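S1.2 Input.
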Amino acid sequence: MSFPRASGILLHPSSLPSRGGIGDFGPAAYAFADFLASARQGLWQVLPLGPLGFGNSPYSSTSAFAGNPLLISLERLADRRWIDRASVDAVPNGTGPVDYPTVFHHKLPLLFEAARRFVRSAASPARARYENFCRQNQGWLDDFVLFDGLRARFKLESWNSWPRELVHRDPVAIAKAQAEMHNELDVRRAVQFFFYEQWQALRTYCSQKSIRVVGDMAIFVNFDSADVWTHCDLFRLNSVLDPEVVAGVPPDFFSKDGQRWGNPLYRWDVMKEQGYAWWIDRMRWLTRNFDYIRLDHFRGFSQFWEIPASEPTAINGRWVDGPKDDLFVKLHEALGGLPFFAEDLGYITPDVTTLRERLKIPGMAVLQFGFGDPGAHTHLPHTFTVDKVVYTGTHDNDTLLGWWKSGATEFERQQVESYVGNCEDGVNWAMIRAASTSVASLCVLPLQDVLGLGSEGRMNVPSLAQGNWRWRFAADLLHPELGKKLAILAEVCDRQPKAVPAVANEEWAA
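S1.3 Output.
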C-alpha cells in the first residue's frame, strides 16, 4: 500500500505559540492550518494527544483514549461563554519553552471552572452533544474519569499504592467512589468533551483546506494509566500488581545502555483469547480522530525487547515474539482499511520487514540517518520505493542544523555535500529538497528544519528523563515567503494537497 503523494509538517500542538504558556487548539492552531494551506502542504502530523504522565511525555500517557486537557483552548471556551474572558486574559502568556508546572498551576483550575459551569448550565444543543459523547464513549470514559479523580485524590500516587479495595477494583468500593465523586466525575467528563469537540472542530477546519491529520500511536501504554488499572489481566504484572517485565529497546544509536521505557508488557495470549477487543477499540478510536496513523515502534508487533523489571537499564533484556499477523488480521476484519504506516527505525531484522511488507504497511526513512555507514543508505532517496514515508528528522532527533553543527562527523558532512549538492540556503533546505523530490509517497518535515533552527529547537533527547517536550516556535517565523518557498517545492514535486473526505461526525464542527 502507498498513500496519495503529499508533503506536510511535523508539529505537536503543544509547540504552537498559543496563549497561556503552551500550544493548544485555539487561534494559533487555526493560523498554522492556514499556513499549511498557503504552503500547499497536505499533512499535519502530531505526536500522541493523551493526558501527560511521567516526564510530560506524549508517549507516557495516563490513557490510550483520553485527551490532554492542556491542549484545550481557553479562548475557545470563552467564545462559548463557559469561562469569563477576563479570567483567560489574566493567564500568564509565556512565549518561550513550555514551563509545565506553571501551566498546570494556572490552566487546569480554569478548565475545571469552565467544566463546572458547563455541567451546571449547558442547554441544548451543547447538552445533547455532551450526552451523546458520554454515551458513545462510555467504554473508556467512565473508567478514565474515575481513575483521574482517584489519582488526584491520592496526590498522583500510582494506582497500585491506593487502598487495596480500589487497587483490585472491588465492585462495592468502585460503586462507593463513583457515588462520592459523582459531581467531580461529571466535570472530568466535560473536560474530555471540551478536548474532543475542539479537536474535531480543528480537524474539520483542516479537512476543508485539504489537510490530512496524521496521528501517532505509541505501541505500549503507561503503567500508571487507566488502561492498566482497568485491564490488569491484559498486562504482565506480578502478585502485588507491579510490572514483572517492562518494555524498551537494546543499546543503539541513541543510547549505549539502551532505553528502558518501563511500560508494562502485554499478555498477548490473553488478548488473543479475547479477540484483541481492547486493540480493536483502541484502533477504532484512533481512526475516528486521525486520517493516517503512525505506528510507533512497529517492530514490537513482530518481536519486542523484554526487560526484567528489576533491571536498572535495558542492557539485560531479550527478544520475545509479538502477535505478528494475527493482530492485524483481526483489526482488518473489524475495521476494514487500516491507514497505517510503520515506524520501523533502529535495529530492524528481516522478519520485521517481511511482516510489514506482508501487511502492506508503508515504512519510514529518515535522511539524517542515511550517512556515514553503507548500511544506512536505506534512508537515502535512491533506495526508496513509493511505499515509504520520508522524514528529514523526527521528534527524537536533533534538528538538521543542530546535527550538522555538532552531531555529524566530518565524513558524514562530506557525504551529505556530495549527495545533496549545493547548500547555499542551508543544509536543511538541501535535505528538504532531497526528501521532497524522492519517490516516497509521503514527505514529512519537522517544522524546526523548515525554520532552520539549531539545537535550541530540539523536542526530545531519548533516555533523558527531564527537560523534554518544551519547544515552542514564535508566530512571526511563519512568514509568507517561507510558505511560498514550500508551495513551489510541493507543486514541482507533484505533492499538492488532495481533497480530504469530510469529517464524518459533523456535530463536532459546531
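S1.4 Remarks. The first strand starts at residue 6 and ends at 10.
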